[in-house]
């Protein structure tokens, strides 16, 4: 993938090295982690200070954990910070979405919650911060919740717009707020127009009939990065639906393993569930670059 409209000849990515700055433990397997959030199977959420993590200090005052949140009664599936940075949302298999006040670090319980009829698998705040999208197990369409009124509604009730079977594994907004993308157990990737609430593009059989685990837009909105249970990550053109690259070399058939860009979108990362490696590829060429051994 190119970061400019008229890219020059791609420069091959260089294998990376890394240093562990900080390690923290949950009582159960960790299900998700990224900058600004961390969730786990043990129903807790830990909020960490990145600057203090980088210090690698043994002093108690330098410990990076800011908050530990305990208000979910089942495993935490996804987390999202409100654009203002002051509210954290979590979703869980307990069918609830909880909101936490990040300005009150000593408070371990939610300030508000949304109730869903199904286990909630993924959430995403609209860039405006006015509403929250939720993807649920066994639900064919996205739920949207008004953050101010706490009212919820379905994005589209048109059967032609909805995912056909299973549930929706992930939902993510484009950075400009004009569209959202969903990944479904029906092996479809759908792009939705926010104003009309309708599906404007469907990529069917995106991962060979095995189901799509995750999908997200690139920062400029021109591309979609997806992962599926066919042991591949894929890069698509948003407008045309054309497949740009297939990133192979990391096995994921048992679990819903995500794919993600690095900070400047020059690399794509995913996990090999058999070898417990983090694998990464050049997003511009699709070439495999390297891997990190570890437990995941």
From TrEMBL:
InterPro entries: CstF1-like (IPR044633), WD40/YVTN_repeat-like_dom_sf (IPR015943), WD40_PAC1 (IPR020472), WD40_repeat_CS (IPR019775), WD40_repeat_dom_sf (IPR036322), WD40_rpt (IPR001680). Its main location: nucleus. One of its GO terms (molecular function) is RNA binding. Transmembrane segments: none annotated. One of its GO terms (biological process) is mRNA 3'-end processing. It is found in: Nucleus. GO terms for cellular component: mRNA cleavage stimulating factor complex. PANTHER family: CLEAVAGE STIMULATION FACTOR SUBUNIT 1. This is Cleavage stimulation factor 50 kDa subunit. It comes from Tieghemiomyces parasiticus.
């Amino acid at each position: 993938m190119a970061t400019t409209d008229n890219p020059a000849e791609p420069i091959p990515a260089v294998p990376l090295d890394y240093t562990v700055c900080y390690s923290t433990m949950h009582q159960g397997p960790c299900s998700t982690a990224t900058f600004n959030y961390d969730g786990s199977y043990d129903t807790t959420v830990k909020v960490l200070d990145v600057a203090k993590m980088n210090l690698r200090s043994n002093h108690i005052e330098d410990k990076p954990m800011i908050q530990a949140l305990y208000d979910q009664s089942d495993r935490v599936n996804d987390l999202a910070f409100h654009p203002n940075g002051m509210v954290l949302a979590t979703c869980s298999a307990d069918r609830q979405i909880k909101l936490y006040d990040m300005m009150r670090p000593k408070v371990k319980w939610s300030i508000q919650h949304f109730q869903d009829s199904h286990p909630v698998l993924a959430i995403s705040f609209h860039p405006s911060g006015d509403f929250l999208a939720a993807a649920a197990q066994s639900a064919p369409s996205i739920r949207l919740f008004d953050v101010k009124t706490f009212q919820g509604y379905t994005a589209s009730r048109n059967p032609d717009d909805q995912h056909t079977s299973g549930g929706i594994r992930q939902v993510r907004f484009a950075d400009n707020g004009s569209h959202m993308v969903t990944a479904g157990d029906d092996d479809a990737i759908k792009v939705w127009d926010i104003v009309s609430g309708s599906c404007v593009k469907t990529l069917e059989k995106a991962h060979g009939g095995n189901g799509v685990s995750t999908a997200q837009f690139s920062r400029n909105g021109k591309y979609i990065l997806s992962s599926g249970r066919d042991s591949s990550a894929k890069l698509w053109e948003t407008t045309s639906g054309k497949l740009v690259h297939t990133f192979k070399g990391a096995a994921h058939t048992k679990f819903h393993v995500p794919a993600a860009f690095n900070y400047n979108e020059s690399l794509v990362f995913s996990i090999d569930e058999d070898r417990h490696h983090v694998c990464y590829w050049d997003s511009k060429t699709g070439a495999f670059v390297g891997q990190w051994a570890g437990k995941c």
